[in-house]
Fold this sequence. Notes:
Blueprint: H1 3-12, E1 17-18, H2 43-46, E2 56-64, E3 80-89, H3 94-108, E4 116-121, H4 131-140, E5 147-150, H5 152-155, E6 156-157, E7 164-175, E8 192-206, E9 209-223, H6 224-231, H7 244-254, H8 262-280, H9 292-311, H10 319-331, H11 337-340, H12 342-373, E10 378-379, H13 381-391, H14 395-404, E11 408-409, H15 411-417, H16 419-432, H17 442-461, E12 469-474, E13 479-484, H18 491-506, E14 511-517, H19 518-523, E15 537-543, E16 547-550, E17 565-574, E18 577-584
Parallel strand pairs: 1-2, 4-5, 10-11
Antiparallel strand pairs: 2-3, 3-9, 4-7, 6-7, 7-8, 8-9, 12-13, 13-18, 14-15, 15-16, 17-18
Helix pairs in contact: 3-4, 7-8, 7-10, 8-9, 8-10, 9-12, 10-12, 12-13, 13-15, 15-16, 17-18
Amino acid sequence: MKLKDLYIDFFISKDHKQVPSSPVVPENDNTVLFNTAGMQPLTPYLKGQTHPLGKRLVDYQKCVRTNDLDEVGDTTHHTFFEMLGNWSLGDYFKKESITWSFEFLTEHLHIPVDRLAVTVFEGNALVPKDSESAAIWESLGIPKERISYLGVDDNWWPNMELLGPCGPDTEIFYWRSDDPVPEKHDPSDERWVEIWNNVFMQYNHDENGFKPLEHQNVDTGMGVERTTAILEGVNDNYLSSIFKDYIKLIETESDKEYSGENKKSMRIIADHIRAVTIIVGENSGIKPSNTDQGYIVRRLIRRSIRHMNNLGIDVNGDFLKKLILMIIEDYKEYYSELEENRENILSIVETEKNKFAKTLEKGLKEFSKAITNCKNNSVDGETAFHLYDTYGFPIELTMELASEQNISVDKEGFQEKFKAHQEKSRAGAENKFKSGLSGTGEIETRYHTATHLLNAALKIVLNDDDIHQKGSNITPERMRFDFNFDRKLTDEEKKSLEDLINEWIDKDLVVTKDEMDKYEAVKSGAEAMFIERYPDVVTVYSIGDASKEICTGPHVSSTKELHHFKIVKEEASSAGIRRIKAILD
């Protein structure tokens, strides 16, 4: 049985309900490009909203992180990864959480107790040390010598300066080495590898300090890739059962062994194409572009192609198709959308590959010329922009190539040459990599409710009940809504949409929330795409008689709060998908 299944079954036996994995591209959340941690989709419930499945939850969650993309190529970093998590929403706390973690590791994964160590919060002038967690660990058999007290940088979540729910955490470490296990835990010894983190949301931090929360939460996280490697006794995640078939395929196609300098390129290809397959395989309509998630996908594909070229793999052959099909086969049991979108994934990657493959060789020659002629051991911004504009080299690829030659790149000069574009893509992306219980503002809440009205109005105005939301993005300045439709809207249709939505707004329709069985929700007329992705019990928001959708919120209490709806642009997003941008004023 796979680790994911063992984990889910164990916590179901402890009265937890399984929550389906949310899409890796967040729904109705503009604070991040991707779900970067298991807790992100559960943020509203950790902030106090009642979850329809109750107070004890368990899941495996698809995650993507790109803030440390340059680290991919070593033994442990990944762009796409899966997080196992169990959650208590105001129910059990430290004793149960720690005891069950210990039980799962030692009795179900059969990890010897003498290979485990833990860390707990040492306390400071603001919050006392977490002696409670330490005592629980000691009672379970972890000796004092293997319990380390560490400060806020290691054992406090999310950050002591941030306001809102927060608290100490306890991290579990495994001795991943053939060397004898030391009696005492040394946090600086990298042979101790973290495998599980239990966060205890114990306090609320406000302007007056730290006060105990009335409803305390538990949020845990265990990485599937790292733990699988540990259980299989390998010190390189790419030698585990998760990646080894991908590596074998790369060895065969390149006629090279997984050794020496080849390792980095092979790891990058395996990691990046797995991430691309997961992202593009969702129903969110992401494809390579020069902004936001699409920019990341483009960068991952092009970086992979460059490393294929390094290994001598035929860029014009069918290697990528073979690898993608292997990945789909491995993950379709858990993420059925991959099989459903198989042809779309292959088509998108093939198109992007063909775009880049045509110019890669010429671009590499141009880069070689540039470093030969560069001044002050630096590639100037104009040359970097030329590589981008003419040969499709993302600035990160130019920087990576230059770094391998110990040469710098004038990134500021590059950004000046293409400032407007770069602010929309790279800089915009960096500003979105946030985490934690960040609040959704009043303006974003209004826009979120407006997306429901637009979804309902499109069906009426265009006389097509098969129109559905295919994506959305909300900022404090505007809303963006993607929907399936095969032609441009007329001016009359756009005006009718505005009039209908503003009519609903003027009626001051009340927004209500109900919890019900997901199939009963659909029978009652609630809008829901991909019903299998929802838990058995769902939250349904109704806006008078105008709209009814399965959703987690947040929403205004009545439509009057939306003031006035205006469409500012309607355009094509992709084949068969239209996009509306609108404002509330």
